[in-house]
Design goal:
Layout: H1 2-15, H2 36-53, H3 55-58, H4 63-83, H5 88-120, H6 123-133, H7 138-156, H8 158-173, H9 177-196, H10 203-210, H11 223-238, H12 259-278, H13 284-305, H14 345-350, H15 354-372, H16 375-387, H17 389-400, H18 405-415, H19 421-433, H20 443-451, H21 458-462, H22 465-482
Helix pairs in contact: 1-2, 2-4, 4-5, 4-15, 5-8, 5-12, 5-13, 5-15, 6-8, 7-8, 7-9, 7-11, 8-9, 8-20, 9-11, 9-19, 10-18, 11-22, 12-13, 16-17, 17-18, 17-19, 18-19, 19-22
Length: about 500
């Protein structure tokens, strides 16, 4: 473990500057990378992220160290610029970073709420029951969930797809930790690979499309490289999955009232988010929040239908987490417990993976703060001029496995190097699928670490990183050969 920590720390100290996001860096570049504050800020981030990597051993939530580091780094940014007589730049820069985070936060919050709602309505339990009744073996479930992750993520984005398929994997796998681990890795790789060839499959592809670097149709040129990226590690890992059948259930699970309509509303929410971006030129997060409004009104209908609405109206949870509307029926004679609660939207929101949401806050602001010290501008020339765009874009994918691919792609777009369409497609591919090499390298992996806590962990994913890396290398070679025409 000590050796691994040393390696990771060395990689961060030497390579991380290449992906620091400026988030509003002043036009007149000021190099503060060699100052004591600049160096200490980088060391602080390395230390915080090292704690994230060892979350399993330390039992320290991943959001806590990066949130602390984010606040301290921006204190140092403000002090450093104040010494130069500039208090305006840090203010504008952190506002820019907060907007970036707000869009991500609202998008994820809406998606997680829908996932929680479908879980409460027995959607995933019913799917497990269906899979078992169809006679699928664990290996068949492994391939089905991976394939669905690859095919659904281009429309539903890789994070939402990973949460959905991950819930199915855990429902089917049950206590079989060995299966759940490899199946979760397969879902993460499949979801990230599927999201890479669609503008709506990942936030990084959305950013590339929004900047006009790649046209809508051109994204599909990396379909086959993305497919190769998933197929190779999936084929390797599938050999460790047994062909046993999950334990048969005593009775079929029936979805609760409104389950199918919630699924339909979720699909409508995805369409709304896509339409907001494609036709209205508005942030997809705004469309997701409108979709959350769909669920809000439907939850009111469910309350009435289930006869659990009191005259007080539809109220949110109070300070102690109690719903003023929720009717607690008297104890049922002979059972010794109260009647179960009805559907409540605010309980679904409360069940969102807040550790994950706050983790992204810390990462984005840490990276933004480091960018203000000038690490991005200093290394831009080294990566894209000295090493060349192909090598640089391959490295971007590797680095995105260490730090989430969202700030990585944001950094590349901020550097805005002069590249051909082929190179922009390459960096879109590598930033999208490179994060699969580590569990912390993508939103899909981080989210599944939260939902499959203690089973799908950083360490368990690391054991299969070599197989994912083989798929990563093969996808790059496939792209360079298959899409050579885009490099002119």
């Amino acid at each position: 473990m000590k050796k691994l920590l040393l390696v990771v720390t060395t990689i961060f100290a030497t390579a991380f500057p290449a992906l620091a996001s400026s988030g509003g860096e002043p036009a007149a570049f000021i190099n503060l990378t060699g100052t004591p504050l600049g160096i200490f800020a980088l060391i602080l981030f390395v230390a915080a992220y090292s704690l994230v990597i060892f979350e399993e051993q330390l039992h320290l939530r991943k959001s806590k160290p990066v949130m602390l580091a984010a606040g301290l780094i921006w204190v140092m940014v403000a002090v450093a610029y104040a010494a130069l007589g500039d208090t305006h730049t840090p203010h504008e820069a952190i506002k820019h970073n907060l907007i970036e985070y707000a869009e991500l936060f609202l998008f994820l919050l809406a998606a997680m709420t829908y996932i929680n709602a479908m879980d409460e309505r027995n959607v995933f339990q019913a799917l497990r029951s269906w899979l078992v009744s169809r006679g699928f073996t664990l290996r068949s479930v492994f391939w089905v969930t991976g394939l669905l992750a690859f095919l659904i993520s281009p429309l539903a984005d890789n994070l939402t797809t990973a949460l959905l398929m991950g819930a199915v994997v855990m429902a089917v796998g049950g206590n079989n930790k060995k299966f759940v681990i490899v199946a979760c890795i397969n879902v993460v790789v499949g979801a990230n690979a599927g999201g890479a060839f669609s503008p709506f499959g990942d936030i990084t592809t959305l950013m590339v499309w929004q900047k006009g670097k790649v046209d809508f149709i051109e994204f599909f040129a990396i379909f086959f490289p993305s497919l190769i990226n998933w197929i190779i590690p999936a084929a390797i890992m599938s050999m460790t999955v047994s062909k046993e059948r999950p334990e048969a259930m005593a009775e079929a699970i029936v979805m609760k009232l409104g389950a199918k309509r919630i699924i339909t509303l979720f699909m409508c929410t995805i369409v709304t988010a896509v339409s907001f971006h494609n036709f209205l030129k508005l942030p997809p997060a705004a469309g997701m929040m409108l979709g959350l409004g769909y669920l809000g009104f439907f939850s009111y209908y469910l309350k009435i239908k289930e006869h659990r609405l009191l005259k007080g109206g539809d109220q949110p949870l109070d300070i102690i987490g109690h719903n003023p509307d929720e009717h607690q029926a008297p104890a049922v004679t002979g059972h010794g417990h109260d009647a179960p609660s009805g559907f409540d939207l605010f309980r679904k929101i409360a069940r969102a993976e807040w550790d994950t949401l706050l983790f992204f806050y810390g990462v984005i602001l840490c990276v933004g703060g480091l960018g203000q010290f000038g690490y991005l501008a200093v290394t831009s020339k080294f990566m894209y001029f000295d090493l060349g765009p192909t090598t640089a874009n391959v490295l971007v994918g590797i680095l995105s496995a260490i730090v989430d691919n969202i700030p990585v792609m944001f950094a590349v777009l901020t550097m805005d190097p002069a590249m051909s369409h082929g190179q922009w497609l390459l960096v879109t591919l590598t930033a999208g699928v490179g994060g699969s090499m580590l569990s912390i390298g993508s939103a899909a992996g981080v989210a599944l670490m939260g939902t499959a806590r203690g089973i799908y962990t950083f360490g368990n994913h690391l054991k299969w990183s070599w197989a994912v890396a083989l798929g990563y290398a093969a996808s790059i070679v496939t792209h360079l050969w298959l899409n050579a025409r885009y490099f002119h």
